[in-house]
Amino acid sequence: MSLAMPQPDAAVLAKRAEIAADLRTIVPGEGVVEAPNEMRVFETDGLTAYRQLPLVVVLPETTQQVSRILRYCNERNIRVVPRGSGTSLSGGALPLADAVLLVMSRFNRILDIDYVNRCVIAQPGVTNLGISQAVEEERFYYAPDPSSQIACSIGGNVAENSGGVHCLKYGLTANNVLGVEMVLITGEVIRLGGKHLDSEGYDLLGVMTGSEGLLGVVTEVTVRILQRPEAARALLLGFPSSEQAGQCVAEIIGAGIIPGGMEMMDEPAIHAAEDFVQAGYPLDVEALLIVELDGPGPEIEHLIGQVEAIATDNGSTTCRISQSEEERLAFWAGRKAAFPAVGRISPDYYCMDGTIPRKELPRVLAGMREMSERYGLRVANVFHAGDGNLHPLILYDANIPGELAKAESFGNDILRLCVEVGGVLTGEHGVGVEKRDLMPVMFSQVDLDQQMRVKCAFDPNHLLNPGKVFPQLRRCAELGRMHIHAGKMPFPDIPRF
């Protein structure tokens, strides 16, 4: 591992057997895993370039067990890495050698379905898709739908503020979570929000959503569910160039049209997805847009005409409009399977996640093409075009010495370009370890110190998921350090205690 991580605590490593035995008194039966071969399945998450066996794995089933585990670790200064389904693409669930890996997969029940208040209370191990399936008979669904929705957990979605195809119109996880129950590192159990629409006081729920396991462990989530729209239709639009497709995206939004979803794929991704799914994608285009419009039937018909006209003005050479629900789902099947499809054309790929202003799509796409030639690595683009959330897939072969490092440098340059044009380092995958050392590209030291102070308020000893998000490993006390110049303190006339 070329990545710098916190140095393992030798005293904790020496007590590994004792720690495992103590955890078994909290989670009896098969709730503790300590054999190296059995822990191998947990050594990485979706960012498979980095691997590390944890100290020990514990799989609690109740909030009380989570509370006791965290209190035990806090009292003994043992680090803890929370983990959901392990689908994180930023290394957010990467274990540490001296840390307890707290796996929440056994929290897999839906606790309450409340159609009157339009919400569902679920345990964090419930899959994203599982919530929609639980309410589909009443024509309700949960809007954020990451491509990994069949596997990713709702608790992990909260940790990373996950997005998805339909977040352009219906929002990210942060816009659809109403409340959480969470356990602090001290073992205290608190509730933020609930079934009510708004909460008083500081927006701690907003702070917790997207906190990547650094502030607490979620044990229950209350999410908003929506009624399915009256109708939905999708357009498949092909373009001779990615720049033309990007300009079409900007003009659709500029015209005041907010599609239910608007996704873009370039030629390598189109061919890979079509070979994998046979969705009927055109193979003679450089870029493909999938634009979904939902709502009342007459409104959809009107908007289809507008989108067609904008696409034609931007050089579209292909336009197919779904004529049935089966055809609409087929359009999306290729996009949803794009990541595994690309895995069939390259031994390895590195999935990036940056977000840019929509108007900068043509510039950034052109920049990535230049970088691809410079690095000698192919890139397949699959992304949420409507909200400017890019997912370039850098293709490489880890068996060739130096190619992983080259792919990482390529990815770093893409993210730097995103920030340069007014964007951000991540849209939904989180910072984790992947983008950690790029945080100073976007934030000043003052910014990072303020973020660290929030971390310190929840976890003063930095026991929760250390080594993630923040590029510099420091103690909370260092944030208040005083600058001494020429042997003198600032404002020497002020009384000090």
TrEMBL record:
<dbReference type="InterPro" id="IPR051914">
    <property type="entry name" value="FAD-linked_OxidoTrans_Type4"/>
</dbReference>
<dbReference type="InterPro" id="IPR016169">
    <property type="entry name" value="FAD-bd_PCMH_sub2"/>
</dbReference>
<dbReference type="Pfam" id="PF02913">
    <property type="entry name" value="FAD-oxidase_C"/>
</dbReference>
<dbReference type="GO" id="GO:0016491">
    <property type="term" value="F:oxidoreductase activity"/>
</dbReference>
<dbReference type="Pfam" id="PF01565">
    <property type="entry name" value="FAD_binding_4"/>
</dbReference>
<dbReference type="InterPro" id="IPR036318">
    <property type="entry name" value="FAD-bd_PCMH-like_sf"/>
</dbReference>
<dbReference type="InterPro" id="IPR006094">
    <property type="entry name" value="Oxid_FAD_bind_N"/>
</dbReference>
<keyword id="KW-0274">FAD</keyword>
<dbReference type="InterPro" id="IPR016166">
    <property type="entry name" value="FAD-bd_PCMH"/>
</dbReference>
<dbReference type="GO" id="GO:0071949">
    <property type="term" value="F:FAD binding"/>
</dbReference>
<keyword id="KW-0285">Flavoprotein</keyword>
<dbReference type="InterPro" id="IPR016164">
    <property type="entry name" value="FAD-linked_Oxase-like_C"/>
</dbReference>
<keyword id="KW-0560">Oxidoreductase</keyword>
<feature type="domain" description="FAD-binding PCMH-type">
    <location>
        <begin position="50"/>
        <end position="228"/>
    </location>
</feature>
<protein>
    <submittedName>
        <fullName>FAD-binding protein</fullName>
    </submittedName>
</protein>
<dbReference type="InterPro" id="IPR004113">
    <property type="entry name" value="FAD-bd_oxidored_4_C"/>
</dbReference>
<dbReference type="InterPro" id="IPR016171">
    <property type="entry name" value="Vanillyl_alc_oxidase_C-sub2"/>
</dbReference>
